[in-house]
Amino acid sequence: MPRPSDRAPGLMLGEGVVLPDSVQLGAHVVIHDGTLLGEDVQVQDGVIIGKPLALGPRSTASRDALPPTEIGAGAKICAGAIVLAGTTIGAGTVVGDQAHVRERTRVGSACVVGRGSSVDNEVVIGDRVQIQTGCYITAYTVIEDDVFVAPGVTLTNDDTMARHGPDYELRGAVMRRACRVGGGVVLVPGVEIGEEAFVAAGAVVTKDVPARAMVMGVPARKVRDVGDEDLLERWR
Fold first, then answer.
1. 151: pLDDT confidence band, cut at 50, 70 and 90?
2. Cystine design at 129: which of 62, 111, 112, 135 (Cβ 3.0–4.6 Å)?
3. Reported pTM
4. What angle do CA 25, 26, 32 make, to 5 degrees?
């Protein structure tokens, strides 16, 4: 269990924590056993890192022992955020105020997880991904490099809404490189958003979106292709 430390006001520090002198700590931070923090990490007020897993009795998430949480060099964990045990946060990534990142999830380098967003367990996020305010990234999602997720996006992974047997496989979305998903979009379980695709605000995506397609509506339908002038390489 974490114990009081005089390194910062109200700091609670677990056993075996790697905490370089260059790490900046706010007040009332809790860092659990074994957590590894890189150089120049910023941890703001009220953050919890390496939080032990707590599952409901009917949860299908793995109960295997979790490895230590790792926070990459120069990352910023903002006020009130919670990062669970077994999570990796890449170098230079920002986890926003009151965001929540669950176990066995990997967030790449130079990403943003916006204020109040929730990233579930077993999620893989590439580099330079922008997840804006108030998003829900469901378990078993894969997000490739340079994806943009606008505010209020919701991903789902269970077509039965919990009425299934033990062999049922939850399926998160797959979001390919440099795709863009607009505000308030809903992605149903298992859909794939193709490379450089564009999903307009408010769409409900019920089937795969081809690479470079622009879709909109409920359910989402293709309206045109994304032009060469809008590809990521044009804006780097």
1. very high
2. 111
3. 0.95
4. 65
